[in-house]
Amino acid sequence: MTTSRPAKRSVIIERETPHSPDKVWRALTEPALIERWLMKNDFQPMVGHTFHFRAEPRPHWNGVLDCEVLVVRPRQRLSYTWNTSGEEAASGLKTVVTWTLTPTEAGVRVRLEQSGFRRGEEQGASHGWPRLIDTLERVVKGLV
Length: 144
Prior knowledge:
Layout: E1 9-17, H1 21-29, H2 31-37, E2 40-41, E3 50-54, E4 64-73, E5 77-84, E6 94-104, E7 107-117, H3 123-141
Antiparallel strand pairs: 1-7, 2-3, 3-4, 4-5, 5-6, 6-7
């Protein structure tokens, strides 16, 4: 008897910004800046570091994401797990968020991929990430 696994899905967003890879990298890796566009956190850009994103709790979610840094290539690539805590954790949802920065003549192309969703689970991320990336860009714009 063969058992098939449901296909995993991804959300991918790419955007070119008129900012330097250094500034975008800072906004992706400095805890105080991450908090301004995403959530409170205890992030450190070190492979293997476990950290938490914290938001206001909601029904069926305690407001905590358990994460672990997988890849750190300064100003190029950042990847971490994104695990739901609380009652939603029973679903076993564990995704991977990967940021890729590619310099362009006009600034940098920012590519976000959140992978590992089961069918239908990617809908919230596909609506939420564009707004968060807009906020990320505003934070980066204000950096000196």
